[in-house]
């Protein structure tokens, strides 16, 4: 117990100091200013090349989504995720120790032993595929869907909608992603930063007010014209759970036939069945999945 109390203290003190350093000191892998730079660039693209030309500069829920961006990327870690993550890792390692194993025993591949570009590509592909499957779970498991409805409550799409999600989502994503990343160990902080900013940029673009699909690359990269259909309120008849689950890559949807782009979706209605009763404020959205029984 004393060990976990110390983890609790170290997690909060360590992350607070990290966040303070991010805000006060600029460096190339700075997540705080990186988020701001990526967001401003994609927002400018929206203003220069708007797909829905009648959509306001400050669209519906623009400021709510902006708050979600900083809360989910930074404050959420300070409040709960870092401690949960460190505790889960310690508990898992302790459990393995009881049966005479350690995480390194599960390592099937060390990316350090591969050419740099190949190792980074494998890290990115494995991360994205696992998250694609996790995203499908969020739509298929009723209790997880209740949490995921926060993201699908967006009614006007814009770059900041990318990070409107319930705080339980990263708990689910990180928990499922832990083992696969342990199996392909060897990546360092630079690898994590590159994958992070790549996924952040693609995700922002997917939700932006941009009518892009990247031509032939649409079969590999997720894009605004594809992702808008993931947020469609009216689902196609062949599925009741959703379509176009890709985060950074669209290739998984084409491979497993969950792709759906019937026509230009610029003006389709977004949301989900019953979203007119969904709360509009952050606090109410945060407790909605917990207090809602159906």
SSE order in H/E notation? HHHHHHHHHH
Instruction: Name the poorly predicted regions.
Output: none
Shape: globular
Radius of gyration: 20 Å
Main beta-sheet strand count, sense and barrel state: none
Alpha-beta content class: mainly alpha
User: What's the overall average pLDDT, rounded?
Assistant: 85
What's the count of strands? Answer: 0
| Domain module tally | 1
Assembly type of the chains comes to single chain
Number of helices: 10
Helix coverage percent: 55-70%
N- to C-terminal separation? 37 Å
Fraction of residues in β-strands: under 5%
Describe the structure in your own words.
The chain is mainly α. The chain is built from 10 helices and no strands. The chain has helices at residues 2-24, 31-48, 62-98, 116-140, 142-152, 168-183, 189-207, 224-230, 251-255, 282-291. It is globular. The model has no long low-confidence stretch (mean pLDDT 85). Its main location: membrane. It is a multi-pass membrane protein. Keywords: Lipid metabolism, Membrane, Oxidoreductase, Transmembrane, Transmembrane helix. Residues 121-258 form the Fatty acid hydroxylase domain.
Short overview:
The chain has helices at 2-24, 31-48, 62-98, 116-140, 142-152, 168-183, 189-207, 224-230, 251-255, 282-291. It has 294 residues and is mostly helical.
């Amino acid at each position: 117990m004393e060990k976990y109390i110390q983890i609790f203290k170290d997690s909060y003190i360590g992350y607070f100091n990290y966040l303070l350093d991010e805000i006060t000191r600029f460096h190339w892998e700075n997540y705080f200013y990186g988020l701001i730079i990526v967001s401003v660039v994609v927002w400018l693209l929206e203003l220069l090349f708007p797909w829905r030309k009648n959509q306001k500069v400050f669209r519906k829920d623009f400021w709510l989504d902006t708050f979600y961006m900083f809360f989910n990327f930074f404050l959420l870690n300070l409040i709960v995720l870092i401690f949960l993550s460190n505790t889960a890792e310690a508990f898992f390692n302790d459990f393995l120790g009881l049966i005479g194993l350690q995480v390194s025993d599960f390592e099937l591949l060390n990316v350090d032993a591969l050419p740099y570009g190949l190792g980074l590509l494998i890290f990115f592909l494995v991360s994205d595929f696992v998250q694609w499957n996790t995203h499908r779970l969020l739509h298929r498991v009723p209790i997880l869907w209740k949490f995921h409805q926060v993201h699908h409550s967006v009614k006007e799409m814009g770059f900041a909608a990318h990070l409107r999600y319930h705080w339980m989502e990263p708990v689910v994503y990180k928990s499922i992603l832990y083992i696969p990343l342990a199996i392909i160990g060897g990546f360092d902080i630079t690898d994590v930063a590159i994958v992070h900013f790549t996924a952040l940029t693609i995700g922002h673009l997917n939700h932006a007010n941009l009518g892009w699909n990247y031509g032939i690359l649409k079969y590999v990269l997720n894009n605004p014209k594809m992702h808008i259909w993931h947020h469609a309120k009216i689902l196609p008849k062949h599925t009741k759970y959703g379509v176009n689950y890709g985060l950074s890559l669209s290739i998984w949807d084409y491979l497993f036939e969950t792709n759906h782009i019937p026509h230009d979706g610029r003006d389709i209605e977004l949301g989900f069945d019953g979203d007119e009763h969904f709360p509009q404020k952050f606090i109410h959205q945060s407790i909605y999945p917990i207090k809602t029984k159906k």
